[in-house]
Amino acid sequence: MTHNKILGLIINDKHFEWHQQYITGAEIRNLGDIPESDKIFLAIKRPWEDEPVLNDTKVDLARPGIEHFYSKKHEEHTIVIIVNGRQKNWSARTISYEQVAKLAFENYSESETIVYTVNYTDGPGQNPEGSMVKGDVVFVKKEMKFNVTATNRS
Q1: pLDDT tens across 129-139, in order?
Q2: CB–CB of 97/9 below 8 Å?
Q3: 142 shares a domain with 99
Q4: How wide is the angle at C-alpha 7 spanned by C-alphas 4 and 12, nearest 5°?
Q5: pTM above 0.70, yes or no
Q6: Are 9 and 60 contacting, i.e. CB atoms less than 8 angstroms apart?
Q7: Within a domain: 1
Q8: Which of 15, 136, 137, 138 has its CA 20 to 30 Å from the CA of residue 92?
Q9: Domain that holds residue 43
Q10: Which of 72, 88, 108 corresponds to the end of one domain?
């Protein structure tokens, strides 16, 4: 059974209508005339993080509320974060546990024997300080400090 219900969505502050329950990132890019080089995000209410929408990502528009999408130029400004006392350039709004570990240890590898402990301070309002475990992602800001240690589980 096909539904003829019109679903609303917002792309970069412009209102659009869609006639299907799902929309892909590629369709959002086409509808909102977003260049291939830009990244697309689905705005999520705080304290949750906005979700990146890739070209093949399907988003359910039938959920309560109107989905708000926005795009960002890929070549974002670079900030300096501090990892184990060393300055590192970073150009994304967020950083993952794995990315921090790789900045700290060039020979970082997924391993059963080595555990990485990641703590951070001087973060933005969403995550001013805390620790990270595998799979975590946090927002970053200029001169945010990360301390990463590797422990051998032998």
Answers
A1: 999 999 999 99
A2: no
A3: yes
A4: 150
A5: no
A6: no
A7: no
A8: 15
A9: 7-72
A10: 72
